[in-house]
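Sharing a chain and its predicted structure for anyone who wants a worked example. Both blocks are below, sequence first, tokens second.
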Amino acid sequence: MIRFEHTEYLLLLLLIPLAIVVYFYVQIQTKRQLSAIGNITLIKRLMPERNDRKSLIKFVLLNLIFCLLAIALAQPQMGTKMEKVQRKGIDVMIALDVSNSMLSKDIAPSRLEKSKLLIQTLLKKLDGDRVGLVIFAGNAYLQMPLTVDYSSLMLYLRAINTNSVPTQGTIITEALDKAEGAFTQTDKKHKAIIVITDGEDHEEDAIDKAEEIASDGTKIFTIGAGTLAGGSIPLMDQNGQIVGEKKDENGQTIITKMNANMLQALAKAGNGNYYILDNTKQVADFIAKDISKMETKTINDKVFTDYVEQFQYFLFFALLLLLLDIFTTFRRKMLDFKNEK
């Protein structure tokens, strides 16, 4: 399994398509200018040192070198072996609301970002538990099956946003159903579901579904993301910049409020506890403590271990291409020199 320590450097690869566009634009403009001066064939004879093919080869080599260097900066790592890990713990499914109302900034930096920060904090406190992830809005999707490989879960978590689910809404019942389906159905306990949501626009069947799941030994914990006073829902452009606020048909700003009563009822029906997402460290401590009180089981799972740095290989090939670029240029000059003689 390959992973990158610094994925942000991979964004440098986006410069390559831009460089390609600029290169061919310059080539086209150069040909137009030469055509305006006179016959291109004659001009090329008068400029023997100019070689379009050589220029293209050098451009391709430089782009490949840049690509390899960008990947090297991202520090690729590879798991050298798969180990069977045996631990004591429980199965925990996290159901995260990614509806547009989670963009509200009534808790900083936003409901969704603070929820993701809570999950990251909680993962650091869990030990031996298998954790999976469900995201939901108008529909629910299993984003990550149960695993003890928390690093992989963190990678999935970073990429989640409100566009991860195309249909808007807050379908908690479907989220609970997806989370329940991810468990080993033969287990009658050792299972917990953590629902992180503002609870807005939920359907009434959620409480009944929670009671049904709890009857099978699963505990449901709810975390309210937002405030009772509520906040507006920002509108984002394609670059993620706020361009306004969501308004109703009368032009009034829509205020989204956390539905604390529903979340409390949901936790009660699921034999769990309800928490307000304010201090992420404190809430993570409470959840971890609740989980530690549950009866554990032996968990067998396979994970990649012994991650080894692989960036040196990319640097090596970048150096080879650089030498090839120099060598190609040198050989061409020698040929030109011989032709002149």
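Comments welcome. Residues 190 and 197 are 23 Å apart (CA to CA).
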